[in-house]
Amino acid sequence: MRLDAAGKACPIPVIMAKKELDNGTQDLSILVDGQTQIDNLSRLGKTYGREITVTPEGEKLVATFADGDGNIPESAHGFDEGSYAVFFNKEGLGSGDAELGMNLAKMAIFTLSESENIPTYVLFMNGGVKLTTGVEPQIIENLNTLIEKGTKVLVCGTCLNFFGIKEDCKVGTVSNMYDILGAMQEVSKVITL
């Protein structure tokens, strides 16, 4: 089956492909506009144990999923008991003084990196993506410590593009709304800071 997702905004190509993967569709390929969609589809494929191959088609790209065994992996639905995500939707913690908010964010991420109960995910959206740009080097260092311990750090690509800072992102995986909401659904609780 071939899907045409050219010109469709993120995360629509991923949602289109996931629907077919959930139905057990074999011989699946999808036409997309560029590398960002390919990266997102590649992560989706890995979740299903179905790697993708990419071929150019004019100015577009075609992602073809390897055939699978028809089973939907546990990681594609449900949540892990006791797991949690930390969600940053702004550049600092709380409201009021911006400098204080940034210092609180820095201390929160440091505290998480020192914790024995690390989050499954740390998620950045809207102004929170600015925390991943190295404006505060200790934040990058502590997020890398969390990644080394097994935390997945997802950063909204649409938000990075909106602020014109995609090239400045220094840590984590540039992701999309579908993956970030999926991460929230996968864990038993989400802590918004």
Automatic annotation (TrEMBL):
Highest taxon of the lineage: Bacteria
Domain UPF0033 per the UniProt entry, residue ranges: 2-55
Record key words, sorted: Transferase
GO terms for MF: transferase activity
Matches recorded under InterPro entries: DsrEFH-like, Se_metab_YedF, Sulphur_relay_DsrE/F-like, TusA-like, TusA-like_sf
Name of a matching Pfam family: TusA
Name by which UniProt lists this protein: Sulfurtransferase-like selenium metabolism protein YedF
Species of origin: Mogibacterium kristiansenii
Record gene name: yedF
